[in-house]
Specification:
By secondary structure, this protein is an alpha+beta fold. It is built from four helices and seven strands, in the order βββββαααββα. It has a single domain (2-139), classed as 2-Layer Sandwich (Beta-Lactamase). The chain is globular.
Length: 166
């Protein structure tokens, strides 16, 4: 079972936090930028309970300036979780057309909607990229990025200071 999905930038600032169960902070190692960069999964050595339902596996993948992290029970396959992260990033890339960190900041609703299409209550329900993207588009949660628009800013009334996109 997936207990949490987290996205951090290189500076350790959270860009997405989605928890499916209540977690104790003392059970887990420091965030991935401080972990050794040799592996993609980590089992904390100070986990005192050997039960299968206790969150004990941290799996992450680094893309550009972002770390995508999944905290799960030891019964989950680390390779399946890495694949889940890959599908999630590819879905975001299709929805935003070359996703960047600013897209995640300004359009967090799309981030959560995409994750909700893939994971419900800590259980993976969909991993087919086309179905995930279509489900988010059907929800109407994809933010349209303004390109070369002037005066579209909030409360600026056509003064030319609107956000011009990329």
């Amino acid at each position: 079972m997936i207990n949490a999905v987290l996205v951090f930038n290189n500076a350790g600032q959270p860009r997405l936090t989605k928890f499916y169960t209540q977690l104790r902070l003392l059970q887990f190692p420091p965030p991935p930028p401080l972990l050794a960069s040799s592996g993609t999964s980590h089992t904390p050595s100070h986990s005192s309970t050997p039960h299968n339902d206790v969150p004990s596996l941290v799996t992450y993948r680094h893309y550009a300036t972002l770390y995508f992290i999944i905290i799960s029970t030891s019964t989950e396959s680390p390779l399946a979780l890495i694949d889940l992260i890959q599908v999630y990033v590819e879905a975001l890339d299709r929805l935003f057309e070359n996703v960047c960190e600013l897209d995640l900041i300004f359009n967090f609703e799309t981030l959560h909607a995409t994750l909700s299409e893939m994971v419900v209550g800590g259980v993976v329900v969909e991993t087919q990229l086309e179905k995930v993207v279509e489900g988010v588009k059907l929800q109407g949660r994809v933010a349209k990025r303004p390109v070369n628009e002037r005066g579209g800013g909030i409360g600026l009334g056509g003064s030319g200071f609107g956000w011009a996109g990329r």
